[in-house]
Write a structure and sequence with these properties.
By secondary structure, the protein is of the alpha+beta class. Helix content is about 25%, strand content about 35%. The chain contains eight helices and 20 strands. Strands 6-7-8-3-9-10 form a six-stranded mixed β-sheet, with helices on both faces.
Length: about 375
């Protein structure tokens, strides 16, 4: 196995007795990888990034780069750079001077500074704006300048702490694609922090979803979306329906599964109905569990009998463009959202309909 460029070993950060912002985190990051630390506020993702950058000192554990410890090195001696949500550009300097500031502090030759600044600005498509002041740029352009300022130093690892949070939605989506393109073009390792699950799914090779200072699940975006290992992951990533049930029995390995955690067939009783699904953890008959099913994996049931049929009542219909969100409830009032194709007429309010939950998409989860 190739040596990871960055390794975290039992990394812990405490702010006072009994308060662990990061709790025994271990993680390997491959060279050239785009890995995202995803999580809600207080999950430990930014504290982890700050320890890697050298702005916080770990309470316990190690940070290694190419197998060599980083923990005792000051930030300016680490082969990495950080891009923050706040651009922190010098208002009295031109774009070109902002980008070249770090090289000047390192006493680089004037010719080298000019060449590398030009290259960095071209990478972020701002070569024609080098003489402008930051105040003359849009928010997206200022973020590109901050990115060029980090790239000009040719870091081996680029740390990005919610860098797109201040941008409007359209520009944020454009910058997501640009960052992913730069990651592939330059081969620099990107370690990205965000609370936006759609952003993480769009850009990442792998996602480390953090919860209470620990990594809840580490996997590729598709696996995390389709095969969450807990109720928390299923609820955090995308939109999902969660129904409380009881395990009836376990079966053999689920068919057609490749990659990700091993799964087994399972039957779960929900609202008096026995439903088929898959479980990625050991469960026992009689155990309480959660059934998770994405809204796009629920269809109107065919007239003939089939597995995983539920009777629901339509409570609301919301048109969103690509799909229509049909809000329904089971007999006990549990909500169930269905993504109805917009080209099809949705059911009427108050109607009782029978839907089918795709068995291969139903997941049996713990908390």
């Amino acid at each position: 196995m190739t040596q990871p460029i960055l390794q975290l070993r039992n990394l812990t950060k405490r702010f006072g007795p009994g308060v662990a912002a990061v709790d025994d985190v271990s993680l390997d990051v491959a060279a050239g990888e785009f890995l995202t630390l995803l999580g809600a506020s207080g999950s430990g993702k930014t504290t982890t990034l700050r320890m890697i950058a050298g702005f916080e000192h770990p309470s316990n554990g190690e940070i290694l780069m190419d197998g060599q410890p980083l923990t005792q090195l000051p930030p300016f001696k680490r082969e990495l750079n950080t891009v923050f949500q706040q651009y922190a550009l010098f208002p009295h300097m031109s774009v070109r001077d902002n980008v070249g500031y770090g090289l000047r502090m390192r006493k680089a030759a004037r010719a080298e500074i000019a060449e590398r600044v030009g290259q960095a600005l071209d990478m972020v498509q701002l070569g024609h704006l080098g003489d402008r002041a930051p105040r003359q740029l849009s928010g997206g352009q200022q973020q590109r300048v901050a990115l060029a300022r980090a790239l000009v130093n040719r870091p081996r690892v680029l740390l990005l702490d919610e860098p797109l949070g201040a941008l409007d939605l359209k520009l944020r989506k454009e910058m997501q694609l640009e960052l992913k393109h730069l990651n592939r073009q330059l081969g620099i390792t990107f370690l990205y922090v965000t609370h936006d699950q759609e952003e993480a799914l769009t850009m990442s090779d792998r996602i480390a979803l953090m919860r209470n200072g620990r990594i809840e699940q580490l996997s590729g975006p598709r696996e995390m979306y389709e095969q969450p290992i807990s109720r928390y992951v299923a609820d955090f990533i995308g939109e999902t329906n969660l129904l409380s049930g009881v395990v009836e029995e376990m079966g053999g390995p689920a068919d057609g599964r490749t990659g990700g955690p091993a799964v087994q067939r399972v039957r779960i009783r929900v609202e008096g109905v026995s439903l088929e699904g898959a479980a990625s953890r050991p469960v026992r008959a009689g155990e309480k569990a959660w059934l998770a099913i994405r809204p796009e994996h629920i269809q109107l049931a065919e007239p003939q009998a089939g597995p995983n049929r539920l009777s629901v009542t339509v409570r609301d219909v919301v048109f969103t463009g690509v799909v229509t969100r049909v809000h329904t409830t089971l007999a006990d009032g549990s909500p169930l959202v269905i993504h109805w194709p917009s080209e099809q007429s949705p059911p009427e309010l108050g109607a009782t309909i029978t839907v089918c939950l795709s068995p291969e998409r139903v997941r049996c989860l713990g908390d």
